[in-house]
């Protein structure tokens, strides 16, 4: 919301100054010009804010491996994502069947759209939530560097050794109480809306970190790009189950994977 507020303030300042000092009083267009200036001022404010955010990212190294999230990087990443989410038209309803744990956790969710991690970040980002993400996302202007500074983890699904390293790094982030970690066990977005097969290895993160597993479903995000910009999109986010260590420690990763997938499948087929 801070990015949106800054853009609006710049917009109002721009419109006021141009109206007072650049538009002669008495001219016919003096009365309707401010409305056009509000539109132009918003665009100017947006450009200025993205330039400021871009300057902030220069502090984050593209090559350095961060073992602890930079709080300011996480803050501005969450704010920038929230700004995008506001204008995406997503109208989110959140249902808690169980409350979130007080300690750090592994969040597992189905994957329908590129907006899934963005909306989850908007809701839980300021509390500390980093995602395991594909390498190409770290090349996104502004966001990519913020992701790196916020300890998002880049994973190559086709490199088993690198994937194992990422799983260990994720477990360390949780174990050291630096941040919670979000994963999409399907490994990629579903193209037809159905729930894909899970990569059970991601559940080893919770076992190594000895942390709770938060099982979540999201629906409706696959329609955002179809409805934008003329129609809002209803998005349902449901927190189904928190599986605590004393529950999942007696299960192997395959059993945890099947358990989580069954919960998601039953919800999504409704």
Give structural notes.
It is a single chain. The two termini are 33 Å apart. This protein has a seven-stranded mixed beta sheet, sandwiched between helices. The chain folds into two domains: 2-57, no CATH class; 71-268, Glycerol-3-phosphate (1)-acyltransferase, CATH 3.40.1130.10. With 270 residues, the chain is α/β, with parallel strands linked by helices. Strand 3, helix 5 (143-149) and strand 4 (153-154) form a beta-alpha-beta unit. The longest helix has 25 residues, at 33-57. It has helices spanning 2-22, 33-57, 71-88, 115-124, 143-149, 160-175, 204-209, 224-227, 245-248, 253-268, and strands at residues 90-96, 106-109, 129-133, 153-154, 180-183, 213-219, 233-243. The mean pLDDT is 90. It is 47% helix and 15% strand.
Features of this protein?
single chain, 270 residues, alpha/beta, Glycerol-3-phosphate (1)-acyltransferase, 2 domains, seven-stranded mixed beta sheet, 10 helices, globular
How is the secondary structure organized here?
Layout: H1 2-22, H2 33-57, H3 71-88, E1 90-96, E2 106-109, H4 115-124, E3 129-133, H5 143-149, E4 153-154, H6 160-175, E5 180-183, H7 204-209, E6 213-219, H8 224-227, E7 233-243, H9 245-248, H10 253-268
Parallel strand pairs: 1-7, 2-5, 2-6, 3-4, 3-5
Antiparallel strand pairs: 6-7
Helix pairs in contact: 1-2, 3-4, 3-5
């Amino acid at each position: 919301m801070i990015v949106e507020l800054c853009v609006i303030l710049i917009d109002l300042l721009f419109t006021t100054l141009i109206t007072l000092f650049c538009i002669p009083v008495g001219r016919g267009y003096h009365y309707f010009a401010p409305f056009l200036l509000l539109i132009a001022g918003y665009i100017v404010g947006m450009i200025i804010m993205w330039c400021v955010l871009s300057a902030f990212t220069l502090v984050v190294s593209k090559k350095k491996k961060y073992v602890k999230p930079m709080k300011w990087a996480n803050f501005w990443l969450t704010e920038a994502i929230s700004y995008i989410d506001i204008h995406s038209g997503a109208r989110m309803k959140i249902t808690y069947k169980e409350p979130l744990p007080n300690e750090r956790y592994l969040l597992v969710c189905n994957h329908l759209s590129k907006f899934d991690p963005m909306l989850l970040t908007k809701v839980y980002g300021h509390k500390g939530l980093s995602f395991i993400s594909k390498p190409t996302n770290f090349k996104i202007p502004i966001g990519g560097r913020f992701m790196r500074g916020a300890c998002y983890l880049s994973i190559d699904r086709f490199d088993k050794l690198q994937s194992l390293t990422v799983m260990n790094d994720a477990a360390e982030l949780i174990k050291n109480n630096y941040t919670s970690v979000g994963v999409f066990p399907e490994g990629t977005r579903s193209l037809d809306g159905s729930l894909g097969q899970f990569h059970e290895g991601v559940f080893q993160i919770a076992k190594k970190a000895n942390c709770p597993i938060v099982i979540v479903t999201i629906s409706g995000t696959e329609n955002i790009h179809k409805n934008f910009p003329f129609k809002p999109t209803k998005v349902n986010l449901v927190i189904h189950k928190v599986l605590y260590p004393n529950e999942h420690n007696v299960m192997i990763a395959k059993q945890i994977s099947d358990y989580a997938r069954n919960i998601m499948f039953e919800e999504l087929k409704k």
